[in-house]
């Protein structure tokens, strides 16, 4: 069976001794801590249905060559260390940064599509420090819908750690990114924007046993 192609985008800080995620129990960010989990919970399950191409946008650090070897991206963007996210940023400022960086790497995916003369069937967008406590089950995911990771809170307050959606919703997603930047909307409320352009029947949630 001919596999579909999924564009696997990873964004954000992959290694930093300066940036401390308080909700990670005081651990510094190191993508290596999450790498095995990445492969076991996301990459290996998806490989049954998809050919996976990796793209990422991150900050420069001493292990950047190792990062490249671990993912072998089709294209990537490496930002300067001095642009490292300031933990004092407001939620709105942080969401603008997230939106801007996703837009930048999406342009790279389009460049690659044009170079190779094909279109991706689906997109997966996540961050370097996501740790799933369950494996994605491709048979339980409707890849024709826009999928969020279950957040367990208010329906409009969605998790921004993982998006899986088909090509047909790329323009709607890009509209959401622009709205986040222009209207100071935080990334957890992206579903409120998305519902302006697609039916809620085209939205689904991935229910698992937790993540951090």
Low-pLDDT sequence parts: 82-86
Percent of sequence in beta strands: 15-25%
* Biggest sheet features: 7 strands, mixed
Average pLDDT works out at 86
Q: Could you tell me the radius of gyration in angstroms?
A: 16 Å
CATH architectural grouping? Alpha-Beta Complex
Number of structural domains = 1
Compressed to H and E, one letter per element, the order equals: EEEHEHEHEEEHHE
Number of helices: 5
Which outline best applies? globular
In the CATH scheme, the class would be: Alpha Beta
Question: How are the strands of the biggest sheet laid out side by side?
Answer: 5-4-1-6-8-7-9
Structural class: alpha/beta
Number of strands: 9
Distance between the termini: 35 Å
Fraction of residues in H or I helices = 25-40%
Tell me the CATH topology.
Spore Coat Polysaccharide Biosynthesis Protein SpsA, Chain A
Describe the 3D structure.
The protein is α/β, with parallel strands linked by helices and 212 residues long. The chain has one domain (4-206): Spore Coat Polysaccharide Biosynthesis Protein SpsA, Chain A (Alpha-Beta Complex), CATH 3.90.550. The protein is 32% helix and 24% strand. The protein contains five helices and nine strands. The protein has helices at 32-46, 64-71, 91-116, 170-182, 190-194, and strands spanning 4-11, 15-20, 28-30, 50-59, 75-79, 122-127, 146-149, 162-166, 203-206. The strands form two sheets. The chain has a seven-stranded mixed beta sheet, covered by helices on one side. Helix 2 links the parallel strand 4 (50-59) and strand 5. Helix 3 (91-116) runs antiparallel to helix 4. It is globular and about 45 Å long. Residues 82-86 have low confidence and may be disordered.
């Amino acid at each position: 069976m001919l596999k579909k192609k999924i564009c696997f985008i990873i964004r954000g800080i992959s290694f930093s001794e300066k940036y401390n995620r308080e909700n990670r129990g005081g651990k510094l960010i190191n993508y290596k801590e999450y790498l095995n989990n990445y492969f076991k919970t996301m990459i290996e399950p998806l490989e049954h249905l998809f050919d996976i191409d990796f793209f990422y946008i991150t900050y420069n650090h001493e292990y950047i060559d190792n990062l490249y070897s671990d993912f072998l991206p089709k294209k990537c963007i490496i930002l300067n260390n001095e642009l490292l996210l300031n933990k004092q940023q407001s939620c709105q400022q942080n969401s603008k940064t997230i939106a801007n960086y996703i837009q930048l790497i999406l342009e790279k995916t389009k460049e690659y599509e044009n170079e190779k003369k094909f279109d991706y069937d689906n997109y997966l967008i996540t961050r370097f420090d996501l740790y799933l406590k369950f494996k994605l089950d491709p048979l339980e995911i409707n890849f024709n819908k826009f999928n969020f990771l279950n957040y367990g809170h208010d329906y409009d307050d969605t998790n921004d750690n993982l998006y899986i959606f088909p090509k047909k919703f790329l323009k709607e997603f890009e509209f959401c990114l622009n709205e986040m930047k222009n209207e100071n909307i935080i990334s957890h409320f992206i579903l409120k924007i998305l519902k302006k352009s697609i039916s809620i029947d085209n939205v689904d949630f991935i229910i698992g046993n937790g993540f951090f």
